[in-house]
Amino acid sequence: MKRPRPPSPPSISAAAKPPLSPPLTPILKQKLQRTGTPKWLPLKLTQTELTLPLTFPTGQTFRWKQTGPVQYSGSIGPHLVSLRQRPGHATVSYCLHRSASPEAAEHALLDFLNAEISLAELWSDFEIKDPRFGEVAKHLRGARVLRQDPLECLIQFLCSSNNNIARITKMVDFVSSLGLYLGEIDGFEFHQFPSLERLSRVSEDELRKAGFGYSRAKYITGTVSALQSKPGGGDEWLLSLRKLDLQDAIAALCTLPGVGPKVAACIALFSLDQHSAIPVDTHVWQIATRYLVPDLAGAKLTNKLCSRVAEAFVSKYGEYAGWAQTLLFIAELPAQKALLQSSQSIKLVKSAEKKK
């Protein structure tokens, strides 16, 4: 299921850090240097291995924007990239809008997409363990779990706690705007995610004025301060969590201000290679009580029951349980739920016609 991973690139947040400037100082903008038509290159990932609408707008990251019918754009470190899928094309294509090294950009992109993990092999394994998963996966192939920079992922999920998508996106856009400006695509401005040092220059008051609220502003500045005090620096400390067992990584993250078990599980799954992490929210709780632990239906969700739900997923799906949970979570989103219900209705009609 997992092919050998090439040597990891340096921490995205640590590489090519933007020059320091006082908080909220406008960053000099530069126009994208384009020569003629943008060059699109195949990514060597088929649409069954990566489906963009099932990966980007599903709550893993809030920094990528839809910039075309089936096109999403975002920054990976200092690289500004677009990904797109076109009818009749077997593979996903990518376009580099800004990068000092095309080779480094492709390496960073594949790393970000967890490209060495084969969805086909994972899905096959999950279908054996759970036939119902196979029925869902038929219609939702290509939903990948991303491998984000840990600092970037951490700050995003501090913004996401008890919040709605529109407000989360606004907050994340504000934080992103503190980083080096990379360019504009389809009316959206893109920046390299700010370094830890740059974030340390933003005060609670500035975050509150930007709409973060008292508690969230305090959590972000507190977490940034806590990371700066870590031996070797916060970036290295976060990356070191990739080498720990899941429970130790979760416990370490929960020492940071504003990080509870659910936020820690999201960060662990989407940036720390903790593939069995299960972020338990109300949607995941409903899935679990319907199919995995029906005896808990009607109970009030507590931290203890969250642990039991996570254990049930791992018991069912194994070491990549977080990937299975991600697909089942996506299946509960309104657009995908409508698709699955429509497919089920067609299946029932065809079955009835056969009987006639």
Can you offer a commentary on this structure?
The protein is of the alpha+beta class and 356 residues long. It has helices at residues 102-112, 119-129, 131-137, 150-160, 165-176, 196-199, 204-209, 214-228, 234-240, 246-253, 261-271, 282-291, 303-317, 321-331, 334-355, and strands at 41-46, 65-68, 71-76, 79-84, 91-98, 181-185, 188-191. A 5-stranded antiparallel β-sheet has the order 1-5-4-3-2. It has a two-stranded antiparallel sheet with strand order 6-7. A hairpin with a 2-residue loop joins strand 3 and strand 4. The longest helix is centred in the last third of the chain and has 22 residues, at 334-355. Residues 1-10 have a biased composition (Pro residues). This is DNA-(apurinic or apyrimidinic site) lyase.
What descriptors fit this protein?
356 residues, alpha+beta, two-stranded antiparallel sheet, 15 helices, 7 strands, 45% helix, 11% strand
Give the helices and strands, then pairings.
Layout: E1 41-46, E2 65-68, E3 71-76, E4 79-84, E5 91-98, H1 102-112, H2 119-129, H3 131-137, H4 150-160, H5 165-176, E6 181-185, E7 188-191, H6 196-199, H7 204-209, H8 214-228, H9 234-240, H10 246-253, H11 261-271, H12 282-291, H13 303-317, H14 321-331, H15 334-355
Helix pairs in contact: 2-3, 4-5, 4-11, 8-9, 10-11, 13-14
Biased composition (Pro residues): 1-10
Organism: Brassica carinata (Ethiopian mustard)
Subcellular location: Nucleus
